[in-house]
Amino acid sequence: IDAERQQAHLRAHYDAGPRYRFGPLRIEGLTRYDPALVARYNRSVIPDAPYRERDLADLLAALQGTPYFASVQAELLTAESETLDAETRRAPVLVRLRERQPHRLALGGGFSSNTGARVEGNVHTADLFGQAWELDTGLRLEQKRQTAYGDIFLPPDAKQRRHSLGLMGERSDIQNLQTERLAFGVQQVQQRGSIEQRLSLQWQRERREPADAEMVISRALVPNAMWTWRHVDSLLEPRQGQVLQMQVGGGSKAAGSDQNFVRLHGRVQQYFSLGTHTVLALRGELGRTYADNRLHIPQDYLFRTGGTGSVRGYAYQSLGIREGNAVVGGRYLAVGSAELTHWLDEQWGIAAFIDAGDAVDRLSDARLAVGYGLGARWRSPAGPLGVDLAYGERTGKVQLHFALSIPF
What we know:
Elements: E1 19-28, H1 35-41, H2 53-64, E2 69-76, E3 82-83, E4 88-99, E5 103-112, E6 116-128, E7 133-142, E8 145-153, E9 161-174, E10 177-192, E11 195-210, E12 216-232, E13 241-251, E14 261-273, E15 278-290, E16 321-323, E17 326-328, E18 332-343, E19 348-360, E20 369-380, E21 383-392, E22 397-404
Parallel strand pairs: 1-4
Antiparallel strand pairs: 2-4, 3-4, 5-6, 6-7, 7-8, 8-9, 9-10, 10-11, 11-12, 12-13, 13-14, 14-15, 15-18, 16-17, 18-19, 19-20, 20-21, 21-22
């Protein structure tokens, strides 16, 4: 301290201590599950790798995201470390777990601007046959659609792939098109960095009956591949970045399908941060089903649009091919959207948007339906909830839409 010159000089020396490397995992709290289950979800805490706090946090997040554990704690046991050299030590990692009850029953209800009022019952079992297999089964009753389903999910394998199989029965009456569908499928999901890959094989039988038109039964055995790339600053509330998705699938008469077809579908969402409180979101979607005609191709592999999440200002799946007095799927799809959201405070925001799109069976029939309007946004725990009032130019009507405003 130099009082005469009114100066102070400070010298500081920081000693971060020795560098640590991860040692073996020590697991406490397991009674129902085998320690190998924890190892299946561990992709970050690798023995002899340099210690990083982020890697330990990734392990916690992975275990907390499973249905097996109610709470997870992890710490580096520096007091029990072994010296590797003068500057590096190897310390075990203690993971404390509290298991969740394996069986849960859930009842709920809600409302969707697409499919109306809904009640639902769900049974979840996280330890089916004592193998840590997840069983998720339930019944969902909506005004326009009723679904019964059952899915079994296996823990990740050594290559971090998750396998599942499922069975579903569904009835719907949307835009005067009544459908009954029975489907069975298997799926493999793998995360490769920022890319999620889904490979599936599904068989389904569909009975569709358009109002004032002939009933059609369609069967298809479809292998499908889908890739999703996410590069956003937040998965729940993105302000900057993009999400891309591409998928391809098809069926053949030689392999259990009633029609030969190949279906391509792609989506993109781009986010731009315009200052502290404003976000511009652009969305595009293209699809095409290559086939001689659309007869005997299930509706899942054709295209309809309109409603929440597609072209606002129009009723759910009201844009498509007119067959009798019903709307059915076509072989081409194009949708585009621009939305500007301004947040007034930490909870509430307003949005202005314009959507355009159509689903047709021939490109020469393409006439984009335009919808635009205003909406309110609320930051809910599950992500921004949107309520939109949209005007459809083609119909001259106003539609009310509800949706979670998060990327696919």
